[in-house]
Design goal:
The chain is mainly alpha-helical. A two-stranded antiparallel ribbon has the order 1-2. It starts with a helix and ends in a 5-residue tail after the last helix.
């Protein structure tokens, strides 16, 4: 049963059987498109992706025993654009790397471990929250990309 749960969590963080792989939703998005704010949203694609990235990193930091600092801005950067095309490319590569790191944790960590810093949720519960959170924002990014004519 434990292996089934691990497999479901790994599939979930990528969105398999539900939506495009979250690790790949930024593929093909250039710097200019990343910083565009489209109606009806108040954030750019980059701001939404940054938000997803920041909350995932908080969970990974906890899993890796690092101290965390709760964000004051809900992890949305104030600027709609990344600092530069190079910063955007680095962000996209690092974003993909988050999912590799999360896969490794799911494979090997105690999923019943509780984290007092996160309302005493178990690792499995925290990953479940990440799955739901990423699904919501991945759909937002796909919708933005469709509006820009940048989706399959």
């Amino acid at each position: 049963m434990e292996q089934i749960v691990r497999s479901l969590l790994q599939q979930g963080i990528h969105g398999l059987s539900a939506h495009p792989d979250v690790a790949e939703i930024l593929d093909g998005v250039d710097f200019a498109a990343a910083g565009r704010v489209l109606e009806p949203w108040s954030q750019s694609l980059w701001q939404v992706a940054y938000h997803m990235d920041a909350w995932a990193r908080l969970k990974l930091d906890l899993f890796e025993g690092k101290p965390i600092t709760w964000p004051q801005d809900n992890c949305f950067p104030s600027s709609p654009s990344p600092a530069s095309p190079e910063a955007w490319d680095k962000f996209k590569a690092d974003f993909k790397g988050l999912f590799v790191r999360m896969d490794e944790h799911i494979k090997g960590m105690d999923l019943t471990c509780r984290f007092k810093e996160w309302d005493s949720k178990t690792a499995a519960e925290m990953i479940g929250v990440m799955i739901n959170h990423n699904s919501y924002h991945a759909a937002q990014i796909v919708a933005m990309r469709k509006m820009m004519g940048m989706w399959k």
